Predict the structure.
Amino acid sequence: MPEADPIPGMIIRSQSGFLTVETEQGPVVSKLRGRLKRGKRTTDVAAVGDRVRVTLLEDGTGVIEQVEARQRALSRRAPLPWVGSRRDYEQVIVANPDQAVFVFACADPDPNFRMLDRFLVVAESQRLPAVICANKIDLVEAREARREFGEYDRLGYRVVYTSALTGKGIGGLRKLLSGRLSVMAGPSGVGKSSLLNAVQPGLGLGTREVQEATGKGKHATVVRELIPVQGGGYVADTPGLKSLDLWDIEPDELDAYFPEIRPLVAECEYSDCTHLHEPGCAVVAAVEKGRISLERYDSYCRIRQGRA
């Protein structure tokens, strides 16, 4: 019996080489066709969020025949301790997301703004809309939270203030997630799973179960999954995402990924200005005049010099 024509779908789960594809006929556990894995690669062939074409087999499984070109991706340089050229490998966390939601706590733990700035650089480089979720608003004064995160609002980023404990801001977050493919990321302890469960009971369950099963504070097995949201859309569960080692971002293009620095580049005296020490630098002048925050400028300098 000849194989049926491939049908379109989207990868919603990836684990140990098995890829679950959501199709019009339901989810299909699939493997990549061998030819797709041949040759030297610098990026993942397929990742959750990728649009694919899959052939259905008689036993109910599938074979992925084609992976469509990605529109964007949240990715990082592979964190594994590989040597040589393998270190220059792009690990795709989520393909084709509509937005990134970066979750940071207002307290317990204190917000790591350097990490947030690094996440935002990655989002900017991918032209990926970024939302900042300031969680645990119940632990601080509202005025203090808005003072700390207000700089990002002024830069044009959407900032939402939430508390998984009291329910504050949960309705707004639920609306933001509805109908979109969202990837949520942030450091440990910020309450991401509690937030997801507040938005939709059970949505953050997978992360908690794996942690309980391993007895550790992180995932022992890397499982990437898109979890359906009521009302449409998906949230990407990104286990173990504590850092984003910048991928395919050159130092001389970094200024384009800081919204407050970008418009000043043309005003610098030197066309190849690094904005670190050159005379006639419009960016340094803006920092001295208070138009650019010292904290954000420090993040720029650290990333530019490879210290972040």
Observations:
- DSSP finds seven helices and 13 strands in the chain.
